[in-house]
Structures are given as structure tokens and as C-alpha cells.
């Protein structure tokens, strides 16, 4: 009997250890954005937790499904997230809708508006608080060193760009004049061409596409996120029987 109890205890301990191992959390949250012009995979920054958590919450609720990219400006950005766009009439003015709360600004010097980043839209409130739902994906353009010098002198009124900013904006491109004014809270890992595909659509005088460009979003599950990070680290994804078994004992998300 003692041996049986001992073996049972060992089995329980092993199961607990295994569950703990399989309960490892991903480093980041990821969101798959699907549009009429392609798909893209978004990584949300941990450095902006308020924006990250709010965005994940809305995506899980299906808040963005069926909404439009209602403001599109080529070589600048594509904006969406206005709930009024879900059933908007043709030529209806958009851009003022959203939840009845704002997100405190989480503007950081190292999180810049390089191409493929996601930023939070906002009105002109002095605290630079973000809209709870409206966002933009940065397209921008590539700047020459001379153009960056001119930007510093005139648009930035003498403020100098960092070495990291100059490197990003002269290679990847982006919208440097937005830095320090809006919260950047994530970046695309793939599908950056989707932004280009949206940005070239024809628009009206309010920058609304003449043909609706709609979106839907999904948060990657914990297992999908873990496997994504394993592949990024040069490891094989875990998809075997034991992985699926132990995943039954942990939450789908994290």
C-alpha cells in the first residue's frame, strides 16, 4: 500500500511539473489582422501595457470585425477602428466613434513610427490620451539624410533625431514627425505589403476609400504564440500529442 501511495505521489508531482512546464507563457501578444487587401501579423509591445491589454480585449470581443479602414493617405498611414464604420452609409463622415474612455499616453522615445508599426489615434487633448479603439498602421516613406536634416530644422523646430531614428527612417521609412506625439504600441511581423495595398486605393475628399476596405482580427492563442516564438528562435513548433494533452489543462489565452 505504501509503495502504491508513493508511486501515486510521484505521478502527481510529475504531472504538476509537466503542467507547469507546458503552462509557459509567450513573451508577447500577437494579433492577426485580415483585410480585403491581405493579412498581416502584429506583435504588441510589452512596453505599452495599457494599450496592449485594451487592444487584446477589444479584439477578443470581436470589436473590430467588419469595421473599415476609413482614413487612408498614401505615404502616410491607414486608419481604422471607428465602430460607426460598420454600417456606415456611402460618403458618411467617419472618425469620431469609439468607446467612452481614453487610454493614457504611453509615448516612449525608443518606440518610433517606422513603417509597419501600429499607433493609437487621438484628438487634440493636451495629455495626448489615445482613442480606445481607433488606430493607424504606418506606411510613411523613406527619407534621405538631407530630408531628415530639413525635417529637424523646420518641422521639428531644431530637435535632433536619434541615431536609431535616422537609421530607421532612411532605410525602412516611416513618419518621423509623429514621434513623441502619439503612442506606438506594436509592429507588424509579416504582411507589411498589406499596408501598401490599402494605401493605394482611391479615396474621396475626406480620405475615405471609395470602395470599402474592411477588417477582422484574431488574437493568437497561447500555443500559436509559443510556437511562433519557438520558430523565431530556430526551434521546431510543439504540435505533438503530449502538447495537445497538457494544453487541455491550461487556458487558451494568457
Automatic annotation (TrEMBL):
Keywords annotated in UniProt: Isomerase, Rotamase
Name under which the protein is recorded: peptidylprolyl isomerase
Enzyme class: isomerase
Membership in a protein family: Belongs to the cyclophilin-type PPIase family.
Top-level taxonomy: Bacteria, Pseudomonadati, Bacteroidota, Sphingobacteriia, Sphingobacteriales
EC number(s) stated in the UniProt entry for this protein: 5.2.1.8
Gene3D superfamilies: Cyclophilin-like (2.40.100.10)
Residues covered by the PPIase cyclophilin-type domain: 27-216
One Gene Ontology molecular-function label: peptidyl-prolyl cis-trans isomerase activity
CDD domains to which the protein is assigned, alphabetical: cyclophilin
